[in-house]
Amino acid sequence: MTADISGKLTDFDAGITAIDTDYVRPRLAASHLVVDEGRAAFVDTGTTLSVPNLLAALAAKNVDPGDVDWVLTTHVHLDHAGGAGELMRQLPNARCAVHPRGARHLAEPSKLIAGSIAVYGEERYRALYGEIVPIDEQRMLVADDGERIRLGSRNLVLIHTPGHALHHYCVVDLDHDRIFSGDTFGISYRDFDVDGREFIFPTTTPVHFDPEALCNSVDRLMSYEPVAIYLTHYAEVRDLGRLSGEMKNRVRAFADLGRRHAQAPDRSLKLREGMFIMLSGWVDEHGWVGDVKQRHWLLDDDVELNCQGIEVWLDRQ
Ligand SMILES: [Zn+2]
After folding, report:
1. pLDDT at 2 over 80
2. Against a cut of 0.70, is the pTM above it?
3. Among residues 223, 138, 237, 148, which one has the least CA distance to residue 186?
4. What's the CA-to-centroid distance between 121 and ligand 1, angstroms?
């Protein structure tokens, strides 16, 4: 049953493993497993359809499901937290830590489901997410900003990081100077690595994108002086001085793109064209040589989601 999981696991130091959640394409979205003195936590879960991979990863690390203490859902977008309910059902002793603004959505997921159908359409929604299982509120830790929890010997702090979503927190591992950033520190697909150099860009998914808050959250993450950050899209990045600067510049560039086309009658089209050209230009500067077809394959879904989020932000002004 665990025979084919090894190709979906990436081991890092400090007891951290990225698990491919098999969402849309390989290495698009990760769940992170952290093991410390035989105790374990998952940071983000993928969808309900990802749960078999997560359980196989536990087996591969010789961790019993009863030894998982935490399911940490950085935010309640379904690509990352959709599987939390099903996963909790498989982990008898785990608690699920959730942002105060996300808790009721995990206890009663109908609004999340409706929101995702609005973004993806009914058919794609079913194929992507499967059945969403609610989580018993008794098993939740509703995490305030600065909430401290323990995993084995290590101390973790959950800090609220608005900008991508208002219900977003990041997990700071104080003992290893690492941060699990969910979507707050943007997207860095390994497909775009050039000689080990990482490429990064923001994710501005509906409905809470806020450029200023996002830049402030990036600064807050960097104030902990981490040596590595773990992104849901996808896993470890280390060149943090450069990447944090590029993230903030690119958040502002996306906001400027939105403002530039705010009044255009064909705003949606202009934004989508403009964002693809912008991303493709950054990819060029980065030295990546993939052709136009590969660029569309790797970027089109994010262009669509990002533009939807920017339009919601423009309409809120
Ligand atoms: Zn995401």
Report:
1. no
2. yes
3. 237
4. 17
Query: How sure is the predictor about 118, in pLDDT bands with cuts at 50, 70 and 90?
Result: confident
Give the Å distance between the CA of 183 and the centre of ligand 1.
Answer: 6
Q: How far is the CA of 28 from the centre of ligand 1 (A)?
A: 9
Ligand 1: distance of its center to the CA of 69 in Å? 24
Q: What is the per-residue pLDDT for 1?
A: 46
* Cα-Cα-Cα-Cα dihedral sign, residues 211, 217, 218, 220: positive
The CB density around residue 127, as the number of other CB atoms within 10 Å, is 11
CA of 284 to the centre of ligand 1 (A): 24
Q: Is the pLDDT of residue 115 over 90?
A: no
Q: How far is the CA of 75 from the centre of ligand 1 (A)?
A: 9
CA gap 182, 186 in Å, rounded: 8
Smallest Cα–Cα separation from 54: which of 74, 77, 81, 76? 81
The distance of Cα 313 from the centroid of its chain, to the nearest Å, equals 20
Q: How many CA atoms lie within 13 A of 62 on its CB side?
A: 3
Q: Residue 29: what residue type?
A: A
Amino acid 186: pLDDT: 98
Best CA proximity match to 247, nearest among 199, 285, 191, 297:
199
Ligand 1 centroid, distance to 80 Cα (angstroms): 6
